[in-house]
Amino acid sequence: MRSQRLMTVVLLVAIGFICAAPKTEQSSEPVQKDKDAVIAELTERVAELERRLDELEAKALPLIEEAAAKRRVDNARSKARARMRRDRGKYSPEVLGKVEELYQTANRHWQSPEAKEALQELIEEYPDLNRTGCATMYLAQMTQGEERVEYLMQAMTDFADCYYGDGVNVGAYATYHLACDHWQAGNYDDAKPLIEKIKTDYPDAIDHRGRALVDELREMGMKAKSEPEQVVP
């Protein structure tokens, strides 16, 4: 579209310039040939400029996308640090140390009964801490069926403002997982409001790889209510 407009403008200018040139008593045939030659030359130059622009855009686009992704991750991590500072202002280092020990128990003994007990203790004793939100997501990822849904819903509602250290927002990530669960199960009517929520409430939210959740949804072909319907295989 841009190249068509550019070429049209150049050609019109060239034609107007040629037509505005003083008339002579010579035959009109050489004049017409001159016009055709100028137009052909301009067309060739415009095509070359477009080719060069395309090459520059192809080289610049990855750099632009990389810079945007870095800004997104940096902003998310800044929010995570701000959320953690709130806990440091409210709880003593001893309490926060105990919380971290319970949390790391799950990391060391993933999927074990010990890990589940430690995470559940966090939820029961420290329901307002940032780490507890992450613990709730851990429990959701360790469980299945209705229990998983309950933990995801709890993470979405009670811990929406919590963050992992890498900038992943608990509320957004829980919404993303629940949307994926519904979509993969064929429950599209349940998935679509959750997808819409991510796009409106968490447009800059990331996953643990630093990728935008909205991009992940798009690549998986998951669409919200407000988007055109698609044929689901």
Question: Can you walk me through this structure?
Answer:
24% of the residues are buried. This protein starts with a helix and ends in a 14-residue tail after the last helix. The chain has 233 residues and is mainly α. Mean pLDDT is 82; it is low at 226-233. It is 74% helix and 0% strand. The radius of gyration is 29 Å and the shape is elongated. It has helices spanning 2-19, 28-90, 93-108, 113-125, 130-142, 145-158, 170-184, 188-201, 213-219.
Strand content: under 5%
* Total helical elements: 9
Cα end-to-end separation = 34 Å
Q: What's the β-strand tally?
A: 0
Radius of gyration: 29 Å
Any idea what the shape is? elongated
Order of helix and strand elements from N to C terminus: HHHHHHHHH
Low-confidence stretches: 226-233
Task: Let me know the average pLDDT.
Answer: 82
Topology of helices and strands:
Blueprint: H1 2-19, H2 28-90, H3 93-108, H4 113-125, H5 130-142, H6 145-158, H7 170-184, H8 188-201, H9 213-219
Helix pairs in contact: 1-2, 3-4, 3-5, 4-5, 5-6, 5-7, 6-7, 7-8
